[in-house]
Amino acid sequence: MQVVSRRVVTVAYGEPVHHVMQFDPADPGYLYLMTSFQMARVKVAACAVHTTCGDCVGAADAYCGWCALETRCTLQQDCANSSQPHFWTSASEGPGRCPTMTVLPAEIDVRQEYPGMILQISGSLPSLSGMEMACDYGDIRTVARVPGPAFGHQIAYCNLLPRDQFPPFPPHQDHVTVEMSVRVNGQNIVRASFAIYDCSRVGQVYPHTACTSCLSAQWPCFWCTQQHACVSNQSRCEASPNPTSPQDCPQIVPSALAPMPTGSSQSLPVHLANAAFFQGAALECSFGHEELFEAVWVNESAVLCNQVVLHTTQKSQMFPLSLQLKGQPARFLDSPDPMTVEVYNCAMGSPDCSQCLGREDLGHLCVWSDGCRLRGALPPLPGTCPAPEIRAIEPLSGPLDGGTLLTIRGRNLGRRLSDVAHGVWIGSVACEPLADRYTVSEEIVCATGPAPGAFSDVVTVNASKEGRSRERFSYVLPLVHSLEPAVGPKAGGTRVTIHGNDLHVGSELQVLVNDTEPCTELVRTDTSITCTVPGGALPAPVPVCVRFERRGCVRGNLTFWYMRNPVITAISPRRSPVSGGRTITVAGERFHMVQNVSMAVHHIGREPTLCKVLNSTLITCPSPGALNNASAPVIFFINGRAYADEVAVAEELLDPEEAQRGSRFRLDYLPDPQFSTAKREKWIKHHPGEPLTLVIHKEQDSLGLESHEYRVKIGQVACDIQIVSERVIHCSVNESLGTAEGQLPITIQVGNFNQTIATLQLGGSETAIIVSIVICSVLLLLSVVALFVFCTKSRRAERYWQKTLLQMEEMESQIREEIRKGFAELQTDMTDLTKELNRSQGIPFLEYKHFVTRTFFPKCSSLYEERYVLPSQTLNSQGSSPVQETHPLLGEWKIPESCRPNMEEGISLFSSLLNNKHFLIVFVHALEQQKDFAVRDRCNLASLLTIALHGKLEYYTGIMKELLVDLIDASAAKNPKLMLRRTESVVEKMLTNWMSICMYSCLRETVGEPFFLLLCAIKQQVNKGSIDAITGKARYTLSEEWLLRENIEAKPRNLNVSFQGCGMDSLSVRAMDTDTLTQVKEKILEAFCKNVPYSQWPRAEDVDLEWFASSTQSYILRDLDDTSVVEDGRKKLNTLAHYKIPEGASLAMSLTDKKDNTLGRVKDLDTEKYFHLVLPTDELAEPKKSHRQSHRKKVLPEIYLTRLLSTKGTLQKFLDDLFKAILSIREDKPPLAVKYFFDFLEEQAEKRGISDPDTLHIWKTNSLPLRFWVNILKNPQFVFDIDKTDHIDACLSVIAQAFIDACSISDLQLGKDSPTNKLLYAKEIPEYRKIVQRYYKQIHDMTPLSEQEMNAHLAEESRKYQNEFNTNVAMAEIYKYAKRYRPQALTSPGRLCFGGVTGSGNAGCVFPHDLQWDPWGPGHGLWPSCPSPPPQIMTALEANPTARRTQLQHKFEQVVALMEDNIYECCSEA
Predict the structure, then answer these.
(1) Which residues on neighbouring strands pair with residue 268, listed in sequence order?
(2) Is 449 within 8 Å of 431 (Cβ atoms)?
(3) Spatial separation of the C-alpha atoms in residues 246 and 217, rounded to whole Å
(4) DSSP designation for 1100
(5) pLDDT tens figures, 1138-1152
(6) How far is CA 394 from CA 436, 447, 448, 463, 560, in A?
(7) Backbone angles phi, psi at 1315, to 5 degrees
(8) CB of 734 closer than 8 Å to CB of 720
(9) How far is CA 553 from the centre of its chain?
(10) Going along 395-493, which residue ranges are E strands?
């Protein structure tokens, strides 16, 4: 299996996955799986979700394990040293092998000194001996050490925190817990905690149980009785008897105390235990809030709180009682069980007699006498309370079965429950009071008993005296008759009404569906009960039971039918303005059961909207408003229940959670439409009584609104809409507008969106109208003629305007249709092309060696192809191709065999010099200082050095970096932003070549496919229209310069063609009837040779094309022959239309031995003698056209600029794919060279104090996008074996300009006079800039590369392409420069130099224009004479101390001597 491309796809969380899965054959760490809507490539394990060792190992994932020293859950190969034991813990070992740690001591006294801490580390960990370790306490770290190697159980020693950096104790706590970790190599690998305690804080935290808490603390604390303190060292206690257990502490023994009235004086006894030590000491009784009273000792186990007086304004209040030693601070005797005293106030909380006397049960000595008072010395008189007073009863009726909870409210309803336990009656029926609901004197709740029949009577309460209610309680028999509606969806939510009689009775009502499920939200009246039906399990009838007071069901035989739920099948439209209010039609089934429905939008929606049910299949809903423009799922609530799409769940289109949200349907929110008057005026004048017609302009949108969705109002009067087009709305007002206000707003409404676009200003009064009519009548005669002329001109102007408007609309419609059709056709063609690429040989990539030679020597490669490759690429009769000439750098070093040993020795010695860093840097700098060492020579030298050092890219990179440092130093002193902007030095060309080598893999594996598809798309799009064979201008292009500004009608022709030379069956080839025969041949060759590299194609002039008009007649088709037409003295090239070749014609193409070179290249023909589609007079002499051409439809040439937009829109997807491929980072193959070089630039900028981010952005842009990618974009022939036509070159120039603008940081100041190549992609540039900035940030965030990692990568690149080039040839050419600029003393008169450095040849070439690469080549050409250069190289070597110390000058002289002697010998032989 071959991986063609790979993209990252995010799988929706919770989406079901198909059980059939497949491992990625290229990386078993990934898995291909399928969901309902997509196929995705995901990792086999998501180890990173586990954050702890227990979770990681306990998950039992066979792929995941705990990386101990990195403290993360990883795959085994992602953990460093995982092959060694104890570094990586697998799931099979179990959570018990996770690293743990114990700290000794685990409890530390804050007042004691500790030399250090012992750490017992267990679990799966490698030996920590010799590693960099520390104990991490958060913000503080101390030294840690391991005495020796060990596994499994290791011991470490750690210094404790300094005492002054102990964490503070939390309030109300006697200790603080400290977290600590063992840090190894910068990672906290295991953690534990210990406690720091302070015994002296126990008394502060627990003042009322100080001794007890001290002796029961978890720390080793001791209680000092005499000091009344808790200490950690028992020796600090004085020699008094000190308790050793909590039971021995002096403490209060709690005892019950009788409630005491407020303000009275009483002495309260308090019992003690273990208080002998304190006997005789001065004590005080504390009742809180500084309520202190003297305590008198009774004996060693009891004291008396003397003359205690407490006050309260409440009915009852509890006061805490404790004993403390006199003096400050307060020291309390322990009170393990708090002791309290209740103080009551008879005057508070007892408004009637029964409540007052009822307090006796609470121990309150109160009596009723014109109010509740404290009882005196005499006992109260019995039976002094009045009879019960019943003020209200509720409810007033109940069922005959009883059980109604009757609430009776009033006064004096008994002092206690026993007073009324059997004293509540309804007539003769008893009502049983409930103890937990009884409130003394105020309220009785009783359960009614069953009654024999219906009756009504008063309620009586007998509490020594009888009280009667004014209202009567009725026993009735409730009845139910019917239920409506009797059907509803099984989802529930149906609101049903039960009809009957006396349904309001009783205190508790239940309606049960199917005997178990309650009907909720009950609302009842005398004759009806309304409630909400719960959901049902299955569509079926179920009984409905009405039950009072939890007794039996009321007879009525009610049945409710659960039916299948309503189904929503579609909603339309699916777009809404963000303000909402658009009518959305919901289609479905079984809507007759829907009582209420609302519509909401998930995530971005505002308040839900209420919908209207039209019939059983249609519902209309106003769309809810939204917070922003987005697409969001729609949620429906039917009968108060969220709609669940059961159909989608059954068909596995949605999971149940998504179905519950109704996410099968989505609503796209778009910006609100915008309107204005036709002339965008804000005030419109209108005279009352005249007809009013408004023309409203609408901004283009994608809402697709219908005419009935617009509402136009003038004030409160509706404007009748008559015409609605895509951009214009016409409406008129038939009724008269009132003049009371004088000004009326013109408002247009779409859904909830309202916009006032103008104000209508009404004319004057009727008197003013009459005066105006009189004046107009007087002037009518004078203005008739002028009015007639004006109306005539106005009608002409209106007709011209309407005609122009129609033309513009027609043109706009044509452009839209052209883009749509073009894109659809191109997508289809590109899909077929992609399939064809997969089936055939694939993309015609050039081999690496040809890519390098074309990139390094672009001009020479072009000349070389014209001289050697192109003429020889003709097919012979068998269709085979002859052997191509070999590029000089790829072939053998052609020198006479007699000279070869010494020449090779000289080149080898010179190679060793070039591999000396000091010599090479001095050599380059010395050459660059020469005035006649042109930019062309610098580029040549850099490319030759790259070839010569290709096998040692790490050395080459080091040389490049040193030269770049010198360049940066020179640029920083002037304007650093200009660095690397051009290629004017050797190192800048070296950088270009270095980027080409390092980025080749990315170019071939990532960018190649989208780049090739873009080229194919450009070619196919250009070929879909007419192309002038002589001027080269085309109907479809991105370049204004190459745009055919004529409306040439071209029709496609499908031709059945056979090609004898290829031995293939016939093919159907698509051509245009305006194509010349050469253009037709080229399209036929492309169809037959599409799977063959372009260099192996025959040329159009090498083949003949024959048309079989009938079984007996055939014609050889040529661009020019005797039938050619002559117009205006020029011959017109023949086309398919000229020969009248019909659709489906049969043609045959064959190779010819007799090449037709009478015309040469068509585009080089003299335009004064020949033309194809456009005569020069069409553009230069428009008024002089002949009568025959006057019928041709002419418009302004600039109107055809819209074709640029058509082409752009068709190619946009392919361009976006290309830019994203260039500016993206693959996880499996990150751009290491780019990261390394960008880090180098940032490091150099930081060293020189350059902090301007714009400068760094410019450096990065100049070094990669503009230096490498733009060169590739403009020269696809560097990468592919293809034909780069003029049209492709023009389009690529526009695309390259867009890429340059995207990488720029300066704002584009564009206007109407700006060039079209900048205007065309101005809208997309901001988005592309974001992609560039994101790419730079991703590069910045990558893990930095060490020199060793980069050297390994460069060594691998060198190894992959070793022996691809003949480095001896490159060395010989470099030597020519060394010889040219060596000292004059070493130059003998009459010597000859190599042709590559004499100044002849094209700019940027190392080879001469005649391509005589070597003097001993086939032509035996001589080297021209060299001028005597200034002595620079030797001088520079002498001036350099390192070069002088290593005798580089002497070695260079040896090379010169050896090479020059061989040259003379070889020249003499030649």
Answers:
(1) 305
(2) yes
(3) 10
(4) G
(5) 988 988 888 888 887
(6) 18, 12, 12, 20, 33
(7) -65, 150
(8) yes
(9) 60
(10) 397-399, 405-411, 424-426, 429-433, 443-448, 455-463, 465-476, 479-484, 487-489
What residues are paired with 1379 via a beta bridge? Answer: none
Measured CA to CA, the distance from residue 1341 to residue 1230 in angstroms comes to: 12
* In contact, 760 and 712? CB cutoff 8 Å: no
Sign of the torsion formed by the C-alpha atoms of 113, 116, 122 and 125: positive
| Percent residues over pLDDT 70 in the chain | 84
Q: Which helix (H) or strand (E) holds 305?
A: strand 302-309
**E-assigned strand segments in 969-1066:** 1052-1059
> Angle at the Cα of 1305 (from 1299 to 1308), degrees rounded to 5?
75
How far, rounded to the nearest angstrom, does the alpha carbon of residue 980 sit from its chain's CA centroid? 35
Cα distances from 1401 to residues 517, 526, 1321, 1372, 1405, in angstroms, run: 98, 112, 38, 18, 7
- What does DSSP assign to residue 402? -
Instruction: Tell me how crowded residue 106 is: count the other CB atoms within 10 A of its CB.
Output: 11
Structure tokens at 1323: 């809208």
Alpha-carbon distances of 409 from 393, 399, 401, 429, rounded to whole Å: 6, 21, 24, 19
Residue written as tokens 């039992």? 60
- Report how far residue 1162's alpha carbon sits from residue 1081's, in angstroms, rounded to the nearest whole number: 13
Amino acid at residue number 631:
S
Interhelix angle 1347-1360/1232-1247, rounded to 10 degrees, is: 140
Give the mean model confidence (pLDDT) for residues 951-965: 91
888 within 8 A of 1413, measured Cβ to Cβ: yes
Buried b (16+ CB within 10 A) or exposed e, 378-414: eeeeeeebeebbbeebebebbbbbbbbbbebbbbbbb
Q: How far apart are the first and last CA of the chain?
A: 57
What SS3 class is residue 313? coil
Q: Report the 10 Å Cβ neighbour count for 575.
A: 18
CA distance 288 to 1089: 106
- Which residue reads 């209106």 in tokens? 798
Q: Pick the most confident of 331-345, 757-771, 786-800, 1403-1417.
A: 331-345
CA-to-CA dists, residue 1456 to 217, 716, 1380, angstroms: 96, 102, 11
514/540 Cα distance (integer angstroms): 10
Q: Which of 1268, 1283, 948, 941 lies closest to 1094 in space, CA to CA?
A: 1283
Cβ-in-10-Å burial (0-12, 13-18, 19+) of 257 comes to: middle
Stronger pLDDT, 962 or 290, i.e. the higher one: 962
The secondary structure of 266-287 as a DSSP string is: EEEEEEEES-GGGTTS-EEEE-
Dist. CA 1153–CA 1166, nearest whole Å: 27
What pTM, to 2 d.p., does this model score?
A: 0.47
Tell me: the pLDDT tens digits for 444-482?
999 999 999 999 999 999 988 899 999 999 999 999 999
Instruction: Kindly list the distances between the CA atom of residue 612 and the CA atoms of 225, 587, 590, 615, 670, in Å, as whole numbers in the listed order.
Output: 84, 12, 14, 9, 24
**Three-state secondary structure string covering 1328-1360:** HHHHHHHHHHHHHHCCCCCHHHHHHHHHHHHHH
pLDDT digits (tens, 9 = 90+) for 136-180: 998 889 988 888 777 668 899 998 888 888 999 999 899 999 999
Q: In the chain, helix, strand, coil percent, each to 5?
A: 35, 25, 40
DSSP state of 330: -
Peptide bond into 543 cis (omega under 30): no
> For the chain, how many residues are written?
1470
Strand boundaries in 575-682, DSSP class E = 575-577, 583-589, 597-601, 609-610, 612-613, 618-622, 631-638, 641-642, 666-670, 675-677
**Angstrom distance (rounded) from CA 211 to CA 1231:** 72
Burial of 1166 (0-12, 13-18, 19+ CB in 10 A): exposed
